[in-house]
Amino acid sequence: GEAVITSGFDLPAKYIIHAVGPIWCGGGLNEAQLLHDCYINSLRLALAYSCQSVAFPLISSGIYGYPKDQALQIAISAISEFLMHHEMMVYLVVYDKSAFALSEKLFSDIEKYIDDHYVEAHEIRKRRRELEPYEFQQMSDVQAVIVEKQPYVSMTVVKEKPALEDIVDQLDETFSQMLLRRIDEKGMTDIETYKRANIDRKLFSKIRSDKNYKPGKATAIAFAIALELDLDEALDLLGKAGYALSRSNKFDVIIQYFIDQGQYDIYEINQALFAFDQNLLGE
């Protein structure tokens, strides 16, 4: 679990941190704690040397034989624990998807949820496309009959239109305003919120300082997850940024699954998104 730091030598990095990971011996020799300590000690060194970013491989998951799924969970746990108290950009470099294998139950539950919602939405759209020409013809026939039977009557209704200035002055609260209000209502701090959203401090500062800031969809969803909003509340927050969750979009359906289940661990959600070849939340 120990770590030391040296110069980057000829590598495109200022420093190299050398960590001694445990050899997997079945899990009964305190391997998990030793692996956890590897990450924490390495991160403390990076902090001591004023590193703004650090990249880790999945320690001990190669020739040392640590099961990749367990190694990943320990890495995520240690890194997220450290980041709750310190500012740093941490990259976890994974070379194949095997480390991101979801539990069989979680994968099958998400897959079933996608089948029940994503496929259903596509079937509805398909039926709608098939019905549209027929419905249009039916409406045309009805309109033709009405035109033939009704006498011509000319009526003009004059309505006073509101001025553009009046409409603009009556705008609802913006995404930034709602986000800050929700943070206060939840009794959370700014730091706690953006860290749970996997967002860096600079981006959060932009959102806080500009009431008209429009985030990307993944960022908006990340904040909804961090605040543990229910589906209606999440949709309300997304709507302030001009977004929605669609049942015809696999990414959206997966997000809705976790919200419906009341599961708000952004790292677990990102593992699921990765497993289904979707973009991740946060920075």
Mind explaining what this structure looks like?
- This protein has 283 residues and is mainly alpha-helical.
- It has 2 domains: 3-100, Leucine Aminopeptidase, subunit E, domain 1, CATH 3.40.220.10; 102-108 and 172-277, no CATH class.
- It is built from 11 helices and 4 strands.
- It has helices spanning 31-48, 68-83, 104-149, 164-169, 175-185, 190-196, 201-209, 217-226, 231-240, 250-261, 266-275; strands at 3-7, 15-19, 53-56, 89-92.
- Strands 1-2 form a two-stranded antiparallel sheet. It has a two-stranded parallel sheet with strand order 3-4.
- Helix 1 crosses helix 2, helix 3 (104-149) crosses helix 10 and helix 6 crosses helix 8.
- The longest helix is centred in the middle third of the chain and has 46 residues, at 104-149.
- The protein starts with a strand and ends in an 8-residue tail after the last helix.
- The mean pLDDT is 84.
